[in-house]
Amino acid sequence: MNNIELIDSHCHLIFENFEEDLEEVVSRWRSIGVKKLLHACCELSEIPKLKNISRRFDELYYSVGLHPLEANKWECNSKSIMKDAAQCDSRVVAIGELGLDFFKSDNTNKQIDALVPQMHLACELDLPVIIHCREAANEMIKICHDLSKQGICPKGVLHCWSGTPDEMKQFLDLGFYISFSGIVTFPKAYEIHECARIVPSDRYLIETDAPFLAPVPYRGKRNEPAFVESVAKSIASLRSSDLKSIADESSRNAEDLFKFDLIN
Questions:
Q1: How many domains does the chain have?
Q2: What is the distance between the alpha carbons of residues 92 and 151, in angstroms, rounded to a whole number?
């Protein structure tokens, strides 16, 4: 029997490319020891589907939030919709994925207008945030610093980490966790490798971001939660550790951040 237990701290399973074989996907993640998963929310229209899928699979929890690339969909009632959804379902364990993405979009003001109220909501509900930050570390750090000075910067995680060691240190200093995805398995992702080597043992998570960014040796395929094992193995190699230690550390950190077991 597999004595390795893993947590996929960020995935997306309600997309069309999982419709035909979702039960097989579930069997595969169970067979390799994935005990919990967090399904991230990209836009508010996904919330009913997320609620339904979390009812189908006991190990699945979810967040509510608006992705920065969907910032144009932020409306005056968006915060109240998210608040109601989070308060009505104990399987909601985070707000997000929220953040900034200057790689694919330049609507900076709209992204910030959607980001800050979600950060406030997370503090209000005492929930952690899932932060998407791409080519926007300086602005994200500034916003978090400003919120921290006001005493309203929530806990959270920088998901799918793709920054530099220096940027990572600044987010760690703000109290955030760092989550590594399949990128850490890519041979030329040197800065991500260094981040995985030096991140404190109590401040990192692992994820797939399925169906995106499949790790080596599955690159080019649809990603799925079972592949989180490859992420853990890569980090074990980088840290001169072993799979079980990485699985235990990352799972304990995810439990500490998202408080899964406190809501049942």
A1: 1
A2: 23
Binding site residues for a divalent metal cation, as ranges?
Answer: 10, 12, 97, 132, 159, 209
- This prediction has a pTM of 0.96
Tokens coding 56: 């189908």
Beta-bridged to residue 100, according to DSSP, are 133
Sheet-wide strand order for 156-158: 6-11, 34-39, 60-64, 92-101, 129-134, 156-158, 177-180, 204-206
Q: Is residue 256 part of a domain?
A: yes
Is 206 part of a structural domain of the chain?
yes
Annotated binding-site positions: 10, 12, 97, 132, 159, 209
Q: Are 214 and 195 in contact (CB under 8 A)?
A: no
> Nearest-5° angle of CA 136, CA 153, CA 255?
95
Q: How many CA atoms lie within 13 A of 58 on its CB side?
A: 4
Can you tell me the distance from the alpha carbon of 130 to that of 9, in angstroms, rounded to the nearest whole number? 10
In this structure, is residue 113 part of a structural domain?
yes
List pLDDT tens digits, range 123-170: 999 999 999 999 999 999 999 999 999 999 999 999 999 999 999 999
Is residue 186 included in any domain, yes or no? yes
Residue 10: domain span: 6-262
- Domain with residue 238: its CATH number is 3.20.20.140
* Rounded CA separation 100/175 (Å): 18
